[in-house]
Amino acid sequence: MSVDHYENFPVASLLCPPALRPAVVAIYHFARTADDIADEGDARTADRLADLAAYRQDLQAALAGRPLAARWRRVFEPLAAAAQQFRLPAQPLHDLLDAFEQDVRNPVYTHRDGVLDYCRRSANPIGRLLMHLYALHDARSLQQSDAICTALQLINFWQDLSIDGPRGRCYVPEAEMQHHRVAREELLTATDSARARVLVAALCSWSRTLMLQGAPLALRVPGRAGWELRLVVQGGLRILEKIETMRYAALAHRPTLGALDLPVLLWRAWRMPAQLR
């Protein structure tokens, strides 16, 4: 469902239309490299932000057709070619960098709106760039793409609760913690409890609702790309199913997809038209 460690972004899979594959890979490497700048290694916050600012300058140069610096040339030369060939919109690419800068600052999210605004910039731009490549620009398709991408981002958060907390990251809104009487410290130390499991169940329900709102898009995207999107949707729902099966103990264990899940995903992708009617 994904390449390397950039979740929620299936890149150049066998189902991706060959003509679009170089552009998809270019977008992937742009996002993956920026994510690594923001999150990998032991660099200081100020250094990460300075690198992301330099990265944004290179993005602007690539989109404007100006000479590229040597540091990230392998990222921006393919991206510049894709941007020129497909007239990629600049805003989603800048939105991704905004989200990575926000990750470096690691804010506290008070309400769901704050998390959704983060997803609007961290996840939805990927979907919008792919919709652009697929020449789907109508409002309904873009709204459903946003719903799928936001759901995938949220599902990834709940899937990673057991590893994000000890790293000092928490995307659970404070209002949700207070409602379920779960302290922030419990999430940061990945402390499983009955109250925490009720919280995780509520978070999974939120994500599932969003995914099902966007799922009909997978039936309208034509050809191989539509089948890829069906598998993306089913992969997200399968992770939620696994969290439910483990009685929402996501703070104790991280659910994953493996080879044995593939037949299930293929069957459910095939059955999606009947399921969504």
From TrEMBL:
Catalytic EC class: transferase
Superkingdom per UniProt: Bacteria
Single GO MF annotation: squalene synthase [NAD(P)H] activity
SUPFAM superfamilies, per database record: Terpenoid synthases (SSF48576)
Pfam families: SQS_PSY
Keywords, comma-separated and alphabetical: Transferase
Keyword Membrane: no
Keyword Transferase (UniProt): yes
InterPro entries: HSQ_synthase_HpnC, Isoprenoid_synthase_dom_sf, Squ/phyt_synthse, Trans_IPPS_bact-type
EC number(s) reported in the record: 2.5.1.21
Name assigned to this protein: Squalene synthase HpnC
UniProt organism field: Rubrivivax rivuli
Lineage: Bacteria, Pseudomonadati, Pseudomonadota, Betaproteobacteria, Burkholderiales
